[in-house]
Each structure stands twice: as C-alpha cells, then as structure tokens.
Design brief:
Elements (H helix, E strand, L loop, with lengths): L2 H39 L5 H23 L5 H7 L2 H6 L12 H6 L4 E2 L5 H8 L8 H9 L6 E5 L5 E6 L2 H4 E3 L7 E2 L1 E3 L8 H6 L5 H7 L3 H11 L3 E2 L3 H4 L12 E2 L20 H12 L5 E3 L10 H6 L3 E3 L9 H10 L12 H12 L20 E2 L1 H4 L14 E2 L23 H11 L6 H13 L1
Bound molecules: heme C (2 copies).
Amino acid sequence: MNTSERKTKSLAKITLLLLAVAITLVIMDRRSKASWSDEENRGKTTESERQTDANADRMLAEGKQTFRFDTFGDEAFWSDALQLHRAIEGANFGGVGPGVSPKTALAVGLKVDTDALPGSLVAQLKHGRVNLDDPATTLALLKLNAVVGVKGTFNGDGSLKSVGITCALCHSTVDDSFAPGIGQRLDGWANRDLNVGAIAALSPNLQPVAQLLGVDEATVRTVLQSWGPGRFDAELFLDGKAFRPDGKSASTLLPPAFGLAGVNLHTWTGWGSVTHWNAFVANLEMHGQGTFYDPRLNDPVKFPIAARAGFGNVRSNPDLITAKLPALQFYQLAIPAPAAPAGSFDPAAAARGAILFKDQAKCATCHVPPIYTEPGWNMHTPAEIGIDDFQAKRSPDERYRTAPLKGLWTHQKGGFYHDGRFSTLREVVDHYNSFLVTNLTDQQKSDLVEYLKSL
Ligand code: HEC
Ligand code: HEC
C-alpha cells in the first residue's frame, strides 16, 4: 500500500465515523424531541378534541332525554284520535269506563320508575298505604312522570288532557328493586312483559286504525288482543297482514335497544340503520310528527297499506322528530349490553361452550364475536337459517338479520328468533344442531347454552 492509498483509506474511515456519529446524533435528537413533545402534550387537549368531547357529552344527555321522555307529538294519535287518555282516567275523571288502576297497569307490563317518586311516596308505598286499585293513583304517577314510556299532560282540574308514548315504553324496563314492575330504569332492555296490544285495545276509538287498515273496529281489537306480552307488529301498518299462514299472530318480539354499536343493519329483518329505524318508528308506529322518506314503502303489492297512506314520504309541519335523531342514535349506540350476573350461568361449561361456538357448532361464522353479528351486510335468506320466509317477505330485503347475541340473558321471556318460535336456548341449539348438522352431544349442547347465557 502506498502513501496515497493509505491516506485515502484513513479518509474513508474518518468519513464513515463522522457519518455514524451524525446519524446517532440525529436519532438521539429525534427521540428527545419526541419525548419532549409527549411531555408537553400530556394532559392537554386541542380545541377540536375539546369540542368533540363536549359534543359527545351533550349528545348522550340529549339522546337519553329523548329516548326516555319524548313523544314527538304523538299525543295527536294516542289521545286526539284514539282517546286512550280517557280510558286511563276512567269515568270518575270525565273519561270512560273504570279507568286504569296501578294494579291493572302493572298487569299489562307497564313499569314504575322509583327515581321519579318523592321519598314520602316511596315510604307510603313501602307501608302499603298507597291504593293500587285506584285509577287516581295512576294519574298521580303519570303526573310525576313515573310511568316508564308514558307521558301524561294534565288539565287544571287534575283530569288527563292527553297521553303520548316514548321509545322507553317498549325498550326499557325496571330492575324490580322495589317490587315487581317497580324499580330503577334499565334503558334499552326489551320489555317482554308489556302487552302493547292490550294497552292499545283500551282506546275508546279505534276507528282511525280500522280506516287505515280497511277493516272494522272489532277486527282491529281482535288483532291487538292476539299479540300478547312482549310483542308488537311493526309491519301491520304497512301490509295489513295480522296473521301468518298457520293462523298464528304475525307480531314479533320486542328486541332490546342496547349493544347495537358496530351492528350494521337493524330490526329482525334488517330494514336499515339505527337512525333509519328510529325515524321510521317515531313517524309511522308512534305516530309522532316529523319527516320520513323511504320509497321502498311505495310498493303497492308488498306494502298496500303504506303505499295507499303515503308512508314512503311523510312531511309534518312542524317537524318534531328530525332534529332529535342524531342524539337519539348516539345514545342508543352508547348503551352497553349488560353483563350476565355471576351465578346465572356455569362458567366452566360456558368456557367449553365458547370453543364449540367458534368451531364445531359453526355459530361464529355468522355471530362474529364480539359484536355477534357479521361486520358488513349481516343478512341471510330464510333457507340459510332453516326457517320459513313469512316475516322476511314483509321486509324490503326479504332476509333475516343475524341477531346480535350480547345480553341474551335479559330477554329470555317470550322465546327466541323474531317470533319467539324457540321457547328456550336449548331449542335454538337443537334447531341448529339438526339444520347445520353440527353433531353435538347432549353435554356439548348444554355447554353451548351456558355460553349463550353468559354473553
Ligand atoms: C310499541 C313498541 C315500540 C316502541 C314504542 C318503539 N319500538 Fe323500537 N322496536 C319495536 C319492535 C317490535 C321492533 C322490531 C321490529 C321488527 O323487526 O319488525 C323494534 C326495533 C327497534 C330497533 C332495532 C333493534 C335491533 O336489534 O336492531 C331499535 C334500534 C329500536 N327499535 C329503537 C326504538 C326507538 C329509538 C324508539 C323511539 C323512537 C322505538 N324503538 C320505539 C317496538 C317498539
Ligand atoms: C347462517 C348464519 C347463522 C349461523 C351459522 C347461526 N346463526 Fe344464529 N341467527 C342467525 C340469524 C339470521 C338469526 C335471526 C333469526 C330470526 O330473527 O328469526 C339468528 C338468531 C339466533 C338466536 C336468537 C336471538 C334472539 O334474539 O332471539 C340465537 C340464540 C342464535 N342465533 C344462536 C346461534 C347459535 C348458538 C349458533 C350455532 C349453533 C348460530 N346461532 C348459528 C344466523 C345464524
């Protein structure tokens, strides 16, 4: 190696060394900057983050209020048209008939919210000093806004001016902490005790419904009485079909309105998103005053009643619904499915069932944990789940939506599937076992049931 070669070599060495030092310095500088800026940011939020947080708080509070207490002006239907308030107050208060006592109200599944009661009244109730056979007590409870999902407006003389219903009527219950039917609110729970049909049938004037359906009042009463507790028929006002081909009621079970975040399509037959269905129900079922657009309802063959009545394009003035939809949706998506209480299932069996759910029993192909429905288009033909197509055909897509299973334990009353055709979870598992040929043993079936109870 000559001198010039040696010089070049050591120059190259120095250059490399300098480069390495430079790179190290840059990396160290980056790191320290990153940790400085992390430190600076800790505990601080940007203006836009603060706005989002405040918006979330406001939407939750507003949505809860709407879900629990808003009638959307549906008094125009339940009171002005059907006169339901007159049957509730009874002849003694200028209405009709015997009136509805708290005992009767509880018997048809209405619930009383103890948080709305003053302490003195709770004490009197405790000592049995409140007359639960007197319709006057029902009026007092309504005045306190203590009957879940029913809102009364009063005249100066204490008689009822009108009643309206809210979402909480069908999608809330109470925890029975005081007595059966009396306790603290449980928002989002399906009220499977509620006999919507029997309550609606109390209305002195069912002519508006009879007219809409093109039948007589006696027929409307027969249909309403055929539903039974925990059921309602959201499609009756669309297609006028009150009974299935086998003669059974066409009504479906009331589903819960919790655990719905991440679920794409809603209702048993996947009519649309939560907010689509909220607008649908508030306008077409509760008969509130708002705006609703769904041209699928203009089909005169599938939805003769809706097409004739123009339900596919409703415009009320004033609109008491649309402005409330954003927060209402937000609130429902925030309601978690309640965890199964300890002791309500066997944990060891449930753990074995969880494995079966995912592999041998094939359940998780459709009920994908942790949302327990398919991320995406969560719909199936009746043939894919081995049942008849009657209810599917009453919807635009003619399919059944994969039911999200979280909180199943809260709505075991009334059975499972849209129409409650399986009265127990074991029957559901038996159905899949033969239909999907899952070859489960008796032990495996009961493990799977314990898992379903634990969700
Ligand atoms: C008279 C009882 C009743 C009232 C009042 C009622 N619903 Fe429902 N709700 C039902 C029934 C029944 C279904 C199932 C309909 C179907 O599948 O055909 C349902 C379905 C739903 C669903 C779909 C749940 C799921 O599993 O995807 C949501 C969400 C919902 N309702 C929210 C509301 C909101 C919000 C209100 C108030 C604006 C409301 N409901 C008022 C009876 C009611
Ligand atoms: C092909 C898709 C698919 C598979 C596989 C499947 N399910 Fe379902 N599941 C559905 C659909 C769709 C519904 C709604 C049926 C209805 O509304 O009548 C449903 C409903 C249910 C219900 C009733 C929920 C309620 O609220 O009443 C239960 C429980 C259930 N499935 C459990 C299971 C179990 C356990 C398995 C595995 C043995 C399973 N499913 C496999 C699609 C599926």
